[in-house]
């Protein structure tokens, strides 16, 4: 297993009281302390990778908006501080490097411990704490650079991965699965949103549906399709905000659910290659515990 992280991800500062805060990284690292893995620094993201998902005008807009001090707001809850662009590009670079390494056979699995998250960023719109669609960018790199023809992205964050859905809507080589609480921000992710080629599975879950609702939904709607897809590589949008202690979500998942889910996702790949990238998770203790069980499964898979 490989772990990608970088100190620059702590330079993305959010206003006081914002849930997506620097302290989350410490909580994630605490969850990784017991894991035996090779630690690597994220390289800076390559603009060419970003441009497979976002137009040059959007990349330039984000870069130009970075303030010299304080914050600027791109929407009601998405803010830029002086270090935000570099942090977001470390996340992109880490996810792309993890894909490269896993496809090169350096390890079976990797976890990218970076922030800001990425799954809400649409083609030309920053939203929901996200600037660039990190997981979609990594998926496109696997497809375009490495020639992977069957890939899957599984997003188990409590919020719908609207950005990933937008960025991969027409991509018939990538199966996209998102489970999420509904109704909840951002409001998308209904079952009838199936992508341009029927390659998207949206699994809305009711508040309070808990472990039983999660397991039932994945067994019925996700795992059979995921196995049939025979993905050579699975990317996970690993948000831990469906945890029962999370202040933003209300699905009521237990820590052990993340171990179960990670096991089953790993089982669905043809060669066991899995790259997981951090999305949400806002209760620090729950985040530490959830990352620990998630990473333990990845570690055991190599
Ligand atoms: Zn979330």
Oligomer: single chain
Distance between the termini: 5 Å
Low-confidence stretches: none
Task: Note the beta-strand portion.
Answer: 15-25%
What is the N-to-C succession of helices and strands? EHEHHEEHEHEHEEHEHEH
The strand count comes to 10
Strand order of the largest sheet: 2-1-5-10-9-6-7-8
Compounds present?
zinc ion
Shape: globular
**Tally the helices: what do you get?**
9
Structural class: alpha/beta
What does the average pLDDT come to? 98
Helical residues, percent = 25-40%
**Mind telling me the C-alpha Rg?**
17 Å
The biggest beta sheet reads:
8 strands, parallel
Q: Can you walk me through this structure?
A:
The protein is an alpha/beta fold and 302 residues long. It is built from nine helices and ten strands. The protein has helices at 23-31, 47-50, 56-65, 84-103, 134-144, 162-167, 210-229, 255-267, 284-301; strands at residues 2-5, 38-41, 72-75, 78-80, 109-112, 151-155, 174-181, 200-205, 233-238, 274-278. The strands form two sheets. The chain has an eight-stranded parallel sheet, sandwiched between helices. A two-stranded antiparallel sheet has the order 3-4. Helix 8 (255-267) links the parallel strand 9 (233-238) and strand 10 (274-278). Helix 1 (23-31) crosses helix 9, helix 7 (210-229) runs parallel beside helix 8 and helix 8 runs parallel beside helix 9 (284-301). The longest helix is centred in the first third of the chain and has 20 residues, at 84-103. The radius of gyration is 17 Å and the shape is globular. The mean pLDDT is 98. Zinc ion binds at residues 157-159, 239, 241, 279-280.
